[in-house]
Amino acid sequence: MDQIKGSSDNMEVVTAERMTPKKKQTKSLHPFSVLVKILVYLSAIITVSVLVFIIAYILIMGVSNITPELFEWKYTPENVSMMPAIINTLTMTALTLLMAVPIGIFSAIYLVEYAKRGSKLVKIIRLTTETLSGIPSIVFGLFGFLAFVVAAGWGYSLLAGAITLAIMVLPLIIRTTEEALLAVPDTYREGSFGLGAGKLRTIFKIIVPSAMPGILSGVILSIGRISGETAALIFTAGTSAGVTTGLFRTSRTLAVHMYCLLSEGLYTRQAYATAVVLLIMVILINALSSILAKKLAKK
Question: Which helix (H) or strand (E) segment is 33 a member of?
Answer without folding.
Answer: helix 31-62
